Amino acid sequence: MKVATLTLNPCLDVSYEFPTLVPDQKVRADHTRFDPGGNGINVGRALKRLEVRATNFALLAGEIGLLVQRLVRHELDDFRVVNIPGETRINCTILEKSPRTQYELDGIGPEVPPEALEEIKRQFVEASAGGFGVVTGSLPAGVPPTVYRDLVRMLHKVEARPVVDTKGEMLAEALEARPFLVKPNRYELEMFCGRKLLTLDDVLQEAVKMQARSTYVCVSLGEEGALLVGPEGAYHATAPRVRVRSTVGAGDSLVGGLVAGLTRRLPLEGVLRLAVSCGSGTAAHPGTALFAPEELDGLMAQVKVRRLA
What we know:
By secondary structure, the protein is of the alpha/beta class. The protein has one domain (3-22, 29-307): Ribokinase (UDP-N-acetylmuramoyl-L-alanine:D-glutamate ligase, 3-Layer(aba) Sandwich). Helices cover 37% and strands 24% of the residues. The protein has ten helices and 14 strands. The strands form two sheets. Strands 5-4-1-8-9-10-11-12-13-14 form a ten-stranded mixed β-sheet, sandwiched between helices. A four-stranded mixed β-sheet has the order 3-2-6-7. It starts with a strand and ends with a strand.
């Protein structure tokens, strides 16, 4: 089955780990990593680890864009680029060990010419036909917030299943076109419904409401696991116990696990177990590194899935 991912706002991810940060003083990092970044790229990296072949599309620019292409060479099966003027952005994650704190800094990328946007949309939709089309992440300058709604409609026309992971206005617009799967986290769901979701029952109520506008809704809950609602019912999965080193890429890995489980036609409980294990496995790695495939069996053995409704 075809699978394609789209990254409209890619980046070079740079991560540093420090013992502690000292104001106005130079501090030497314990670890430094450089990884290809962007939500769709991370989903594609997860899919490759899960042995699901995907075609991955991104808009790249300048020398940083060339570096991203070199870094991603062995991380994706099929990487296709539409080049644009300017310079691809750099994002930075800073992990302070004491007190344990994570800082995430997002850079600003180039403005996207309309013709480049239309070209990458066309290529992506064509590669998704009859399979899964994953659209995820933030948008660069020059791209309207309606783009995910438009892409969902285009994907439906080629009998593809749109998978959407975004927030705010972009999520609201995408839901107007009824995607196959959406994956907000708890905070994004709170922002969407306009209230705090303090309990699992609160999350379930709002996820069920959202599922009226999408075939499946998966809400990631961090150390509390994840909730998955679909026509078959609602399920909650606990998260395996891991030592969290960085949460960057954990949500993207969860999306990769969802898509992999769905392509394998696993039962809904199995889809959720795999997805949560991928997300937790990534959280146990430093910086923007993702889970290792050999870790998954042990992680999945820890995950408990129960039916809620």
